[in-house]
Specification:
This protein is an alpha/beta fold. It has helices at about 10-15, 20-35, 50-60, 70-85, 120-130, 145-155, 205-215, and strands spanning about 40-45, 60-65, 90, 105-110, 135-145, 155-160, 165-175, 175-185, 195-205, 220-225, 235-244. It folds into two domains: about 10-145 and about 205-244, Vaccinia Virus protein VP39 (Rossmann fold); about 150-200, N-terminal domain of TfIIb, CATH 2.20.25.110. It has seven helices and eleven strands. A hairpin with a 2-residue loop joins strand 7 (about 165-175) and strand 8 (about 175-185). Helix 2 (about 20-35) packs across helix 3 (about 50-60) and helix 5 crosses helix 7.
């Protein structure tokens, strides 16, 4: 069993295209502006293949992406070069993130990155992010909600068969986390399929605990809302913060 995103890296954006990255990126931009940041340097923590780095770069921000998956960053650099979008990408565990050349104006950490952090590491992570931002800098992060992981994802199996790739996703709820096994079958140039297996662990975080941890690290939590600004009855929770 391989590490998370070793096989998914080349397919992640393709398989998640239905989440509407353009609308999601516009949501992030709108919320950054609402928090008082419309230009400057940004950090995308858990950037994956760089979709939000590229989109925010197009809106005038100077972006640096951080991820712990080398495969994801290879893909991110390739796509940035192909699309002619200037971005920098750094291999780095989210819990050790740091900024070079002065503090950043904002950070985003979205699409479940925080769910990959154990509960015991959340306070240190938020403190690390706060140390990277200027006073008044914005921090937007999200999680898959506790309800989603317990009731929708946990102890369930999902699959999809496409022309180029098929995938299966097996999940087991284990107390405060969900253990996930993902299998991909990727079609090669000769028409044969290659199997790729990887393992993920996502941790369940309660909204109140995340709010308390962010406040303790020096952030003011301005708002908590659902996906793309929906009310908090959705399966994704977004937190809009400003460093005090």
């Amino acid at each position: 069993m391989n590490a998370a995103y070793s096989g998914l890296a080349d397919w992640f954006e393709y398989l998640n295209a239905d989440c509407d990255y353009e609308k999601w990126s516009q949501y992030l931009y709108d919320r950054l502006c609402r928090l008082g940041v419309s230009c400057g340097r940004g950090m995308d923590i858990g950037c994956g293949s760089g979709i939000f780095c590229r989109m925010l770069s197009r809106r005038g921000f100077s972006m640096t992406g951080y991820d712990s998956s080398e495969e994801m960053l290879v893909r991110a650099r390739r796509l940035a070069a192909e699309e002619g979008v200037p971005s920098e990408y750094i291999l780095c565990d989210a819990r050790k993130v740091r900024v070079l050349g002065g503090r950043a104006d904002f950070a985003v950490c979205v699409n479940d990155c925080v769910n990959y952090l154990p509960q015991k590491d959340i306070n240190a992570f938020f403190s690390r992010v706060a140390a990277c931002l200027r006073k008044g800098g914005a921090f937007i992060f999200d999680v898959s909600s506790a309800r989603k992981l317990r009731e929708t994802v946990g102890n369930n199996t999902f699959c999809e068969d496409r022309e180029e790739v098929a995938w299966m996703w097996f999940n087991e709820l284990c107390g405060d986390r969900v253990e996930m096994d993902v299998t991909l079958f990727v079609k090669g140039a000769d028409g044969r399929f290659e199997r790729k297996d990887e393992h993920h662990t996502q941790y369940i975080h309660e909204r109140a605990a995340l709010t308390a941890a962010a406040e303790a690290a020096g952030f003011e939590v301005r708002a908590a809302e659902g996906a793309l600004g929906d009310p908090l009855d959705t399966q994704r929770e977004n937190f809009l913060c400003v460093r005090r």
